[in-house]
Design brief:
heterodimer, A: mainly alpha, B: alpha/beta, Rossmann fold, Coagulation Factor XIII, Chain A, domain 1, 2 domains, six-stranded mixed β-sheet, 18 strands, 34% strand, globular
Chain lengths: 276, 398
Amino acid sequence: MIFAFKALFDIIATNIKNFRQSISMSAIELKKTYSGSTFGMVWAFVKPVLFVLVYWFGITIGIKGGNSGNVPYIFSLIAGILPWFFISESWFRCGTSIRRNKHLVTKTVFPIATIPVFEEMHQFLVHMILTAVAAVIFAVSGYMSLNFVQIIYGWICIFVLMWAVSLIFSALVVISRDFEHMIKSLTQVLFWLSPILWNIEKVKDYPLVYTIVRLNPVSYIIEVYRSAFLGGFGVTYSWFFNDVLGTVCFWGEIIVIALVGSYLFKKLERDFADIL
Amino acid sequence: MEYAIRIKNLTKAYKIYSSPLKRIFDTVFHTKHYKAFTALDNISIDIPKGEVIGILGKNGSGKSTLLKIITGVAKQTSGEIETNGKISAMLELTSGFDPELTGIENIYLKAISMGIPKAEIEKKIDDITDFADIGDYINRPVRTYSSGMKSRLGFAVSVNVDPDILVVDEVLAVGDDIFKLKCIEKMKQFRKEGKTILFVSHSLFTVKAFCTMGLWINEGKMMDYGELGSVILKYEDFLKKEKAKITSTQTEKNADYPIEKKDILQIMNFAMLGSNGEKTTEFKRGEDIIIRFDYEVKKEIDKLNFGFTVRDAEEKLIFMSDKRSKDNLINGNVGKHSLEIKIDSPPLLEGTYLLSGELWDNDSTFFVGFSNKRKFTITQTDYIGSGIISLSHKFTNQ
């Protein structure tokens, strides 16, 4: 337990110390991701737009479902799927970051604890731009209110959550690629267990399911994003702090995940260079 | 004495797991489900500042593990290590390059991953591109590079970070001769500046030419450490025994001299001459043997040296001249020169012999052979004994 706390502080200290290096690394990572293609960064926007359109088409026209409450389904969908794009992408990319950057571990003296962070940072930049684009769409359609300032809180939540999760998975994926496959499979499960395509109110009649969904930290983040985008237009919570229990649970879970992650990470870090 | 690196009772044991999941189980429950493999066993050495240490040993003897621990990439299992100064590691030159990024972008990528601030790289970027010397390719994606170009780029970054201790792991094997010379030149400069260099190479030639001290590791144990000459002797002896164990037909590696590296040095008009000055490959016993050839230096070589080797018909070594000898320095200025080597009345007995020889840069791996196991024969008219050489002897009888 004490080791876990020490490990956590150690990892945070390493990241603060090497923050400038992380920024440079993530800038290059961003270049890497989109170099060698003519349209470059455009792809970062094409994919989410296509997904939104396809889901919207499938749900409202195909299954004739979706609408609940007084906000058109497409807006509820965008607010929910926006954080999901970041979560699914960064879960995989940060989770496999150390294995993919093995030359940094085995050939150079590199602060390993910063690898998942710089991988997350450049994706987060894309996420922030996407959020801004979404905000413009909402504003033009007349769905913009003061509640939008909560997006800052939402950003903090989503960044910290994915960082904590990446501690666990980046270390485990080094040990065995089984965990890489596990991330891929679990992503699908998590997608449907989170209230992205559907509204959380819909499962209120099933207490057990409702509790599980509420305990899912991804649900909490999606609710925060919905409060930010649609808080003034009748969603469950207009402000995140209206949901006291959810907020407490979320941060409690973050602390547990971060401690477990730091423990595993620090214990296994010594072996990284030997395994890779 | 000031030390660059001090290593005390260093041991490294790898944990070999039959299944990766057992490692996680061990981590969580503090159990031990692995077999330990000892890669380094209780090594203690002090490396003084300013020395060039050649690390010798067979594949898998633990050389790379030692370098990795010194650079801090891997952690030791037990023991202490203390390093004094900034280390630049060249464990693999081209690792970490992204094929889609341009040369310049990759310089930044590599330098940043080595922990150099961006402002400092900007100052050095001209030096680095000059050193790499790959012309317009610097602005093209690295995937279009040849492997030699990639190595040049990697080497250029690694040496331009101004390290105190340079760790070089078998990286000179790539690249052409001219680039190799350039690398050696740069390392010579480091040596002059009093920097410490650790050097792993399978080419004994390079090690002999370049290093001042030797460290020989075998199966994780330190066999010898100290002045290069004595370490090399023991190591060569060991290699010979090892080779004899495997096969007796294999020829010694040093004999396979590559032929002519025309851009730097070219050898022409080789001839062996008898005592009467006529071209021949047949000599009478005791007759002087003269080896003569012209050579053209196209790129100045600081310390050009010659060496020669005589073997018997079964390729057993009879004599190899001291390749580091300062007495055998010859003219290395640009231009045409000729060289005559006279072997004074050799004590060789009747039989066929093989002559090998080469010119080489005393500071590097670069060499050009002037003869590769060329046959010559010794004839005799009177029988004085059998064997390879005659031992002149006197006796007193009472």
